[in-house]
Amino acid sequence: VQILNAYNRLVAGALERAVDVHFDGIPTRVMRAEHLCAICLDTGRTKDFLRVALFIEQDAVDRQALLDVSTFQK
Question: What is the pLDDT of residues 11-52, one digit of tens each?
Fold first, then answer.
């Protein structure tokens, strides 16, 4: 679990568009995979680039949506 403050437009947009889910009966909000990947790419750290690669390899991210998020938020 990671908790992020809205420290820039990208994270603020991700928080605004988070989806409501229930985990063990507890309501919570989760960022979409495209936003998580865009934030990882924005950080520029090697470990975050690896996370993005895993998302893509597992078909867990819509590549066009990722491009849209990355372009719109800058």
Answer: 999 999 999 999 999 999 999 999 999 999 999 999 999 999
Q: Are the CB atoms for 37 and 66 separated by under 8 Å? A: yes
* Residue 31, burial from CB neighbour count under 10 angstroms (0-12, 13-18, 19+): buried
CA-CA-CA-CA torsion sign (51, 20, 3, 71): positive
> What single-letter amino acid sits at 43?
T
> Distance from first CA to last CA of the chain, Å, rounded?
26
Give the separation between CA 21 and CA 68, rounded to whole angstroms: 23
| pTM exceeds cut of 0.85 | no
